[in-house]
Amino acid sequence: MDLTITVKVNGREYERSVEPRLLLSDFLRHEIGLTGTHVGCEHGVCGACTVLVDNEAVRSCLLFAVQTNGREVSTVEGLDAGPQQLHLIQHGFWEAHGLQCGFCTPGILMSLVPFLEQNPDPSEKEIRDLLSGNLCRCTGYQKIVEAVQLGAKLIQEKSS
Amino acid sequence: MKPAAFEYSAPSTLDEALSLLGDYGGDAKLLAGGQSLVPTMNFRLAQPAALIDLNGIDDLFFIREDGSGLRCGAMTRQRSVERSALVQRVAPLLHEAMPHIAHSQIRNRGTIGGSLAHADPAAELPALAVALDARMYVRSVTDARWVAARDFYVGLFTTAMLPEEMLVEVAFPTLPPGSGWGFDEVARQHGNYALCGAAAVVCLDSGGAVENARLVFLSVGEGPVEAKRAAELLVGERPTQTAIRAAADTAAMHDIDPVGDIHAGPAFRRHLSRVIAERVLSKAIKKATEAGRH
């Protein structure tokens, strides 16, 4: 039986009627058309589908859409302020070449948003611990670590 | 759709959830954090007829201290346990081990009760519960009982709970004075399932000899495995490096019977067990000595 849910995604409210078994990742991609959230393994290992639910980074493939009824979801589409106005973390990735194919990037960016809010000046170990939740098969992570460090620096410079 | 269809209910009280669980008579699964259940549903290895979502039951989310130690509601997120200053003070072993559980993105959602009840032999929390002599509060519509952690785990992904029962709370007793603790594990990558891990709790008497020791492994058996022979070897002894090494040897050779998988064969798992046992016992004894009454 379908259930009607109201979910706020990137600040906008969506009301949809969905089957309880619909995963949040598929809800975002198929029901709302936000395909920036990538689905890799669909069993919680790769982290490509990481989004924020009430500002906490979670796997959207391990949540049912009905569980986000009345909650606030943020996806990679909500990060930038408009064309040519990348989020500073995205800017770090752009400048430091923190991606190659880019498939894992949305999940990494979403993991990083609350992480850098809570820990504005992370050590390399803390960055690598955080990144262990997101698989990247291209970069070998070195450039991603540098991109995070640059993004953190840009955020700190802006706020000081 | 990845998972098979199911009926969904999201009760807001424990009584409602227990009543639903009783009504479904074993056909329903309880949805806690979903970090193990949903993957198995996505693979269709699990196809429960119904899910009872516990995320709306506020009474199951708590961390508090009582006269005898720490009490956590079953739905307390692992991330909340990890960040709790109360847990750090009252159950420091639990605090230290939390970052080893999967990744922060998983711990944001995963719950303490979900992991304890899932009884995955590779999970950290069941081993920690046994090492800390935790007690599980289990309820059904008609019954309520406390089960000691060491009696709770009865086999692979199997607990002493009946189909109509739910784990609602876990209690960790305060360690006696003169106690030390240690936790360590080896995983191929941080956050992956550990190839082997162990938790140790050691209590020294006023003369500096071992009064009580518990060493519990994960990922080397069908559930948390208590190294009882190793503990017996240590009790009454002065905790020298030789005694620790002998206990670790015994643990690896006689207390466990690991099976192999593609990541680690039995011999390698025994090797890891010996190395990790020595590390966690040494850590525990060092802390116990520092905290010592002598």
UniProtKB/TrEMBL annotation, chain A:
UniProt keyword annotation of Oxidoreductase present: yes
InterPro entries, per database record: 2Fe-2S-bd, 2Fe-2S-bd_dom_sf, 2Fe-2S_ferredoxin-like_sf, 2Fe-2S_ferredoxin-type, 2Fe2S_fd_BS, Beta-grasp_dom_sf, Diverse_Oxidoreductases
GO MF term set: 2 iron, 2 sulfur cluster binding; metal ion binding; oxidoreductase activity
Keywords linked to the UniProt accession: 2Fe-2S, Iron, Iron-sulfur, Metal-binding, Oxidoreductase
Protein name (Swiss-Prot/TrEMBL): (2Fe-2S)-binding protein
Pathway involvement of the protein, from the record: Alkaloid degradation; nicotine degradation
Keyword Iron belongs to the record: yes
SUPFAM superfamilies: 2Fe-2S ferredoxin-like, CO dehydrogenase ISP C-domain like
Domain 2Fe-2S ferredoxin-type per the UniProt entry, residue ranges: 3-79
UniProtKB/TrEMBL annotation, chain B:
Residue ranges of domain FAD-binding PCMH-type in the record: 1-177
Signal peptide (from-to): none
Keyword Cytoplasm part of the UniProt annotation: no
Keyword Mitochondrion: no
InterPro entries found in the cross-reference section: CO_DH_flav_C, CO_DH_flav_C_dom_sf, Diverse_Substr_Oxidored, FAD-bd_PCMH, FAD-bd_PCMH-like_sf, FAD-bd_PCMH_sub1, FAD-bd_PCMH_sub2, Mopterin_DH_FAD-bd
SMART domains on file: CO_deh_flav_C
Keywords attached to this entry: FAD, Flavoprotein, Oxidoreductase
Example of a GO MF term: FAD binding
Gene3D superfamilies listed in its UniProt record: 3.30.465.10, CO dehydrogenase flavoprotein, C-terminal domain, Uridine Diphospho-n-acetylenolpyruvylglucosamine Reductase, domain 2
Classification via Pfam families: CO_deh_flav_C, FAD_binding_5
SUPFAM superfamilies named among the record's database cross-references: CO dehydrogenase flavoprotein C-terminal domain-like, FAD-binding/transporter-associated domain-like
PANTHER family with a match to the protein in the record: XANTHINE DEHYDROGENASE SUBUNIT C-RELATED
Protein's UniProt name: Xanthine dehydrogenase family protein subunit M
Natural source organism: Caldilineaceae bacterium SB0664_bin_27
